[in-house]
Amino acid sequence: MSKLHFGRGVLGLTAALAAGATLLAGPASAATTAPSPAPHSAPGLHTGHAATQSALDGTVAAGAPGVQAQAQAGGDTWFGAAGTADLASGRPFRPGDEFRIGSITKSFVATVLLQLEAEKKLSLDDTMDRLMPGVIQGNGNDGRHITLRQVLNHTSGLFNYTEDPAIRTRMGGQGFLDHRYETYRPQQIVSIALAHPPNFAPGTSWSYSNTNYILAGMVVQKVTGHSYAQEIERRILRPLGLRSTSVPGTSPTIPGRHGRAYSVLFDQTPDRLYDVTEFNPSLAGSAGEMISTTADLNRFFSALLRGRLLPAHQLDEMLTTVSTDPDTPGLRYGLAMMSVRLPCGVTVWGHDGGIFGSSSSAATTRDGRHSLSSNINADWVESPVSPVVAEFCPSSPATSPATTSPATAFRTSSTARTTGF
Question: Where is the composition biased (Low complexity) (predicted)?
Answer without folding.
Answer: 29-46
